[in-house]
User: Fold this.
Amino acid sequence: MTALIVCHFVLAAFARPLVRALGARAFLVLALPPAATTCWALTQWDTAASGSSVDWSWAWMPDYGVSVDLRLDALAEVMVLLASGVGALVLLYCASYFSDTTPRLAGFAGNLLAFAGAMLALVLSDDLISLYVFWELTTVFSYLLIGYDSEHRHSRRSALQALTVTTLGGLAMLIGFLIIGQEAGTYRISAILADPPPAGTAVEVAVLLILCGALSKSAVWPFSLWLPNAMAAPTPVSAYLHAAAMVKAGVYLVARFAPGFSDVPGWRPVVMVLGAATMLLGGWRALRLNDLKIVLAYGTVSQLGFLTLLAGVGNRDAALAAAVMILGHALFKAPLFLVTGIVDHAAGTRDLRKLSGVGRALPHVCAVAVLAALSMAALPPLLGFAAKEAAFEALLHGDTADRWALGITVAGSALTVAYTARFVWGAFLRKPGVADTPVHRVGPAFLAAPAALALCGLVLGPGVGWTDRLLSAYADAFPAPAHPYHLALWHGWGTALLLSAVATLGGAVLFAARDRVARLSRRIAWPTADGVFGQLLLGLERLSLQATGFVQRGSLSVYLATTLLVMLAGQLSVLIADRPWHGAPAPRLWDVPLQGAVAALTCAAALLCLTVRRRMKAVVLAGLTGYGAALLFVVQGGPDLALTQFCVETVSMIVFVLVLRRMPVHFQESVSTWRRAVRIPVALAAAATLGVVVWVAAAARVAPPAGAAMVEETAHHGLKDVVATILVDLRAWDTMGESAVLAAAAIGVTSLIYLHRRAEGTAAPSEVRGSTAWSVTTEPLTGVPQGDEGAPERGWLAAGATLAPEHRSVVFEVVTRLLFHPILVLSVYLLFCAENMPGGGFVGGLVAGLALITRYLAGGRFELAEAAPLQPGLFTGLGLFISTAVALFGLSDGTVLHAWTYHGHLPLIGDYEFGTPVIFDCGVYLLVLGVVLDIVRALGAKIDRQIERAAAEKAAARGAGPETGEATP
Assistant:
């Protein structure tokens, strides 16, 4: 099972090269994993039909009781056959539906196959958490497939709508899963259903939340709005996701949990009322629409309501009817969607008002459509008829609620017959006053997939008894009635057959009066759910804009004051209520007098920041406070922290200086007296409160410090640097999360500057000869010797030709040339010495970044491009990839981030050891280097471009000035 699931995702990852090499024929290769899964499922038919199951379990994190469990039983067998069998045929259909020149075909192909893999894993999952993960994967892939034609606003909106509705339902379902798992004491679905937790308030709430997720996925009212809009997707997506796969996931979930929870109060009313309402509303709406796909979409909504009702009734015969109806619905609705795609291809329209005589021009296509339509209308001898008979019979012998549901399903079946007839009439028959629609020929390969599905519906009608043993194996999970129902095409004359005849006759009457019905439907139509959804989104957007305008005033001082006041209120209330300082030892001013001296100098630098008016002075003084904190680390005996603080503070100051180039020299904010009177007490109170909180928190320790244990653990592995070991081994999870946050923050900041491409190429000849930010001046310099243009000049930098002589510093260039490579070597040394000496990937990455910053400061953006020709995103992404790969590699031993160490011996070098923590630290090194390089390119090279552009515009204006003056009389 796992191999088949993995094959789907692996081959989906190779969809792009396959499509590039084979074009649309790549779909033939991509159909292999679903086809193989279908063959495997057929070999397991007897096992599932006998009531047994095929189980597979992998203890992912055994210490936490987390495992991945898969299970193939009777219900999963049906769903696997549908998800894989229909998926394989749809992929084969895509080879004819798309052409080699179709845009974004590779992404579509990969997403479709990946969706098939996620759907397969969903129906096989026997663990609530695994089921939720694959549930959301189907949501994500469906979003990508629905929004395939992203250039059109309607496609983007439809994809977002489907994502919003199904994701919200999925989150509610996750909460229900967690409650059920806690109440049952296990997250194994088979174990929960074998011994359901006793009914109570928590279980009732959990069941309703799970139903919320299931109903939103299956487009049951009031969540049905997203499915018709999802018809913006290509027809193969509609045939697969909205007939055989995604929308069936919600019905599958109801059917899966019904044996254990159908008796919980609230289950039956929700399922039966909403299912019946959906069946009527969807069928009624389909009678007035003119787009063939939209007609089928609302018909699908109606059928999903019917399926949800049957699956949730909670008795054996209704469960059997639901199972066979799930099978029948896929075998008639998928070919109808596929035929609609063929008609659209051949005629160029899906508007049934414009189509006429298509059946005569495409007789084979018409025959396949009629065959599938007869099954949807539940006419003998098709599978749809046998399924509808089973449903009527199950509801007929139920309780009062079941009989009410029976009446609604009869009415809904009449609507089904009516819109089915309208579909066939609109797509294929001639219409008075409408000329025959010109169509082009359809090849047999194009028709093969829908024909195969329609023929299955025809064969399984008389042969429905072949499926009885398998489907009964699922239905037998419910208490057995006195006379259990068995599937057969003909059960003799009876009430169920009479009801089928009434539904067929009622549908024929509605179709005969289709014009009047359509006018009546439009006259009494409620506001569409789609319109209501749009108004809700618009109102939410307006509310968010108003809230943002009220809160975000654009004043950093206001933001900071608000943050400090909230912190003060929370901390002071706790301090006043608990009085935690009682019994706490009095704080010491310092351990050694040197700490007091450094602290005094640091405070003096901070206070001087309040007195200066020049931005550069403020930056330098703020940097001195950071260096003062680093000196405190040195005095306290923390060289790792001190080294990191020095590097971070240096990079921060350089970034500040780069930004200040585009800002006024002096602070221009005028602070009134009353504002200053408010700011000073807030700042002092925040500082005092923070100091008290730190003191109280340090004095509140009741357990022995963990430092001794960490030192012992580090020494046990033959290491000396405890801090580095904590970062890359003992607390590697924290480092991994912080690395991801750092990368996201850097990408966000630089994206605000790079509105277009982020690339920064090497110096072009034209740019070298022209003006750059390092050669332009605001005013022409006078009195400066220009030197002999023909004299030979030593170039110390790779891009030294871009620098103007008056802006060059030979000393700086020589120092940069001499120190660049030693600094890089130092960064690598800091990376690999971290196990036994101060250093690490974070510090090493910062030092390497400082080397590149030095090149930039000495020679400008082109010098930086020569020093680092690769894009920063490559370093950032590669670093994250390496760290994540090391983390996942630990799964081979059962634990994420499990560490291995290899001991070896090399000639001349001697004994050495190399472990996965070092590789993890290499990922951190590359990530930090990429972040620093990205920020320098954004705040340095990008601002250089702005300076060059402004200088060019000023020079052009200066040159155009005299000409304009001469032309003026």
Notes: The first helix runs from residue 2 to 13. The chain has 39 helices and four strands.
